Structures are given as C-alpha cells and as structure tokens.
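Entry 12.
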Amino acid sequence: MTLRFGTDGVRGDADRELTDELVEALARAAARVLPAARVLIGRDPRASGPRIEAALVRGFVAEGVGVDLLGVAPTPAVAWLSAADDQPA
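Predicted 3D structure (tokens):
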C-alpha cells in the first residue's frame, strides 16, 4: 500500500509507511496551519494506535498546540466532538 491522504486522515501501512518521524512531521505541519490552541486526537484500537498517537502529540506540543486525547473513538464521534467543542480534530 502506498501512503494516501483521505477524508479520515492519512492511510498507509502503519509499520512501514507511518513512521514516527512522518507522523510527527504531519502534526507539526497541521499545527502551523490550524488556527487552534488545542486539538482533539482519537484513535482506533489497532496495536499501532498508541505509537501513532504519541507521535502526533509530540508534533503538536512541539508547535505549542495543546492536545486532548480521546483514546479509542470512532471517527464520527471525534467529528461530533470537534464540532461541538469548536476544536480541530
């Protein structure tokens, strides 16, 4: 599988393509363009979830953006919370 960007985020083989460095760089880039002091992060229950979540947190925090971790959460729930709290997800 090749790395793809879609409506639910970045898609790719978690172990080969979604490296910690890439995920952290994506979070840093998002932090630079999102007008937000905080973001929401939800994840799926796969084994790679905690590693990817941690890399996202490092990237956002490095850019001065606060993070609210939702843990394992379905995409529609993250989208609803994002809209309800007026926070990017």
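Annotation: The mean pLDDT is 90. The beta strands are 4-6, 9-11, 38-43, 66-72.
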